[in-house]
Automatic annotation (TrEMBL):
Cleaved signal peptide residues: none
Organism: Vidua chalybeata (Village indigobird)
Classification of source organism: Eukaryota, Metazoa, Chordata, Craniata, Vertebrata
Name of the protein in question: GAL3A protein
Cited CDD domains: GATase1_ES1 (cd03133)
Gene3D superfamilies linked to this entry: 3.40.50.880
Amino acid sequence: MGKRVALVLAGCGVFDGSEIHEASAALVHLSRSGAEVKIFAPNIEQRDVVNHLKGSPAEEKRNVLVESARLARGNIQDLAELNASEFDAVIFPGGFGVAKNLCSWAVDGKNCTVNEHVNSTLQAFHSAKKPIGLCCISPVLAAKVFPGCEVTVGQDKNVDGRFPDAETASAIAELGCKHICKNVNESHVDKANKIVTTCAFMCKAPLHEIFDGIGTMVQEVLKLA
């Protein structure tokens, strides 16, 4: 029987929701491994809406759950309904929606607050010693909720211009967590906390390398489940 995995989304679109390629990559790797996946998102208003063609703010309001349903092909539930006892693991793709909608990192950095249902979900899986997978910017959720944990968002320096958001590693360290430098095709496993992270689009890399890196994260999560 395949592992039961919850996937938590933050909207639809890199600049104001979940990064579509990351969500799709996680789903493909989970499917290939025979996992049974259910998708969730918080039923809240997005912090903002971005016109992805122009890269500028749009004067409209959107709901995170409704937008995430686009990625889930309509098969999605309110995050408030997620029961950790029904799953073996949870995975969070990245995208700016994580830093805007699932927490306030985009505005407040290391002083951010985490959405109550996101926080309770993370705490429930952690308390049950069930693995948590995070990619791109979503490792900051673990850094905020679990002081002392180990995560990666890639490199702590902008190596060859490939890691423009390398300062995120410093902010993670300021939260009392350990940042582990990894390449885009790798993931880091914090065995003590059962937290698996990979940098994905925090690195400027070809899509297939990001896809492969997410694959390592998924496989490590399933090993721990």
